[in-house]
Amino acid sequence: MPRLLVSVPRLLALLVPLCAFAVTPAGAGETELADPPPGFDNPRRIVLQLTTNDESAANSVLWNAINLQKFYGIDNVQLAIVAYGRGMEMLYKDSPLAERIASQLKYDIEYIGCGNTMETTGHSPEDLVPGVDWVQAGLAEIVERQLKGWIALAP
To answer: SUPFAM superfamilies of this UniProt entry (predicted)?
Structure first.
């Protein structure tokens, strides 16, 4: 039986590129930005829906906002979080997320509550974390922002 002799340098030259493929996950890489790319004069405009009173799930929505700011850059993205239904419970002063929401307001993340939900649950705008805005209908706010070019996400 013939023996195949391969030198160590040649073997390494053959194996190293194969190892690189094995380490890199398929499809890994950077997100390709659409034209025009986001910038100060052309920020990405994104509205996130907050519809849960589950603290962990609501915290996840807040982290999504931060992650979007990190990805695009704080000056290259406008973010609004619109709460309605049970999500409104997170926007009140007695919410376990009140301090975090107050902090995010300082980083230009806009928070908007639903007046219809407040009426239904016996709350008023005075119950909101200071700096949180409100509109009569949270769902309509999302629709109108979409019609103005905002991207709506329901994380």
So the answer is: DsrEFH-like
